[in-house]
Every structure is written in C-alpha cells, then in structure tokens.
Design brief:
It contains eight helices and six strands, in the order βααααβαβαβαββα. By secondary structure, the protein is of the alpha/beta class. Helix 4 packs parallel to helix 8. The longest helix is centred in the N-terminal third of the chain and has 13 residues. The radius of gyration is 16 Å and the shape is globular. The mean pLDDT is 94.
Length: 186
C-alpha cells in the first residue's frame, strides 16, 4: 500500500510542545492556554491575523526539536518492512518556513522516521491522488474529509485539537493501533 502520513500531531506531539511559544508570542498565560486547550493549530480568531508572523518567527528554529509520539519511528519502520511505501505529506510551505523541506527533513531524521518521499503542500488531496495513496493518516478532520471524498481510506489520529470533533473517520490514539489496523486491511 501507499501510505500518506502527516507530521504535526500525527507523528509528533506538536500541540503541547508549541504552547509555550504561542504564550510567548501572543503574551498569553500558558496555564490559560492549557485550560482553554489552545495552541498553534487552533488559535483564537483575534490572533489569526498574526499566525503567519508567528510561524515565521518560530518554526524554522524550533520545529526540529518537536518530540515524536511514542513508537512512531519503530511503527513506521515496521510498515516499511511490511512492504508499504511511506509518503510524508505535510502542509508546511514557504508561507510558514524559510525552507520547509530542509527543516522537515532534519526533524524527521532526528526522530528516526524513515520514508520514501516528503511532500510539502497545502493541497494534500491533490498530493494523495498524484501519489496513488491508499490510506491517509492525519489529525485534521478537513484533510481526512478531503481524502475520503477522493476515495482514499483515512485514519484520524486523535489530538488535543480534534478530541471533541465528531467524525466518521477511523480514529487512533497511538502508533501500535495504526500498525494493527493496517495489518488487518491487508
């Protein structure tokens, strides 16, 4: 199978890692951000006008150190050993990064994530179609919805930002569950 995998809050623990930077940039109380469950991916509307500047200020220098989810690297390695093609598809572009490929490749290397191809694009649906993706693993309901409309199977990784979202997508909370799920689909 061709498996597309998102990075932030799918392979990594981005939500909590980014909260102190959101607090710093927006001069917000970190405890309040935690109570309100706010981070980089669900900024309040009044902060959204500054989102690009926030990204440009922090992403290039902090993303490489984002912690990876437990068992992400060994699970991806197992999927590769099972014969699957792994395509990392992320919405990281030059709108948010100086060089999204360089920064992302360094982060993936640091996390020991093996993959066949890295794609940085805002249009994950198009990338999935071009790469003949069989299954997309992502944490954003909108990405899963777009892929599903194209006939691509989806698995939605539960994250802080989507935990309360109602969805018909298969949900997982850990990488062992992903491997088990893909094992049963073969």
């Amino acid at each position: 199978m061709n498996i597309a995998i998102d990075i932030d809050d799918t392979l990594t623990e981005s939500f909590e890692y980014f909260q102190p930077y959101v607090a710093e940039y927006f001069n917000a109380d970190i405890d309040e951000l935690r109570r309100k469950n706010i981070s980089y991916s669900n900024l309040p509307d009044e902060w959204k006008a500054h989102e690009i500047d926030f990204c440009k200020t922090y992403y290039d220098r902090i993303v490489e150190d984002t912690p990876f989810k437990t068992n992400a690297a060994p699970s991806i390695k197992k999927l590769k050993e099972m014969g699957h093609r792994i395509i990392i598809i992320t919405r990281r572009t030059t709108a948010f990064y100086t060089d999204p490929y360089k920064t992302t490749a360094a982060e993936l290397k640091k996390g020991n994530i093996i993959y066949d191809k890295l794609i940085c694009t805002l249009d994950k649906g198009k990338a999935c179609t071009e790469e003949k993706i069989d299954i997309l693993i992502d944490d954003l309901p909108s990405n899963c919805d777009a892929a599903s409309k194209l006939g691509i199977k989806t698995v939605m990784f539960t994250s802080n930002a989507n935990a309360d979202t109602k969805t018909n997508h298969i949900r997982v909370s850990d990488w062992k569950s992903v491997v088990d799920l893909i094992n049963t689909k073969q």
